[in-house]
Specification:
With 146 residues, this protein is mostly helical. It has one domain (5-144). 29% of the residues are buried. It contains eight helices and no strands.
Length: 146
């Protein structure tokens, strides 16, 4: 949907600022994750970033719903998409989705289009259902491969 920025119902500066913030955040996350090697266990990469080990896994001896998300994102940043999806399909999808949103934001910035109008037109109900089903399915997959 091509909506010129000047025709957007949103404040042009706020629109541009939100798009720019998303692009900067995506670049920062890619740079942050590119300095870390994915944990070969398929989980625990977040510990290399200074975070605590997962309390859920210690308490219940099973993966938490987001187990392996950071590892999958790190695999994706290292251009290993097959490994990313093999480790944690939800995490790989989440990372790809974030990169896609950042690419849409950059595209909107470069073309002088309204990022917020574009985002407002997305089917949020469908996105939510797919996200929840993917999260639950990936959790089941991780539990089966734990």
């Amino acid at each position: 949907m091509r909506i010129p920025l000047r025709e957007s119902p949103y404040n042009a500066w706020a629109d541009r600022l939100v798009a720019l913030a998303l692009v900067v955040a995506a670049v920062a996350f890619v740079m942050w994750l590119s300095d870390v090697d994915p944990d070969p266990r398929g989980h625990g990469t977040h510990e290399k970033l200074g975070m605590e080990p997962c309390g859920w896994a210690r308490q219940w001896d099973m993966p938490c719903p987001t187990c392996g998300v950071t590892t999958a994102a790190t695999h994706l940043v290292h251009l290993q998409p097959v490994a990313a999806f093999a480790v944690q399909p939800f995490g790989a999808s989440l990372a790809l989705g974030g990169l896609w949103v950042a690419a849409v934001a950059l595209w909107s910035l470069l073309r002088g289009e309204s990022f917020l109008v574009r985002v407002a037109s997305w089917p949020y109900g469908t996105i939510l259902v797919i996200t929840v089903l993917l999260l639950l399915g990936s959790w089941g997959y991780r539990a089966a491969t734990w």
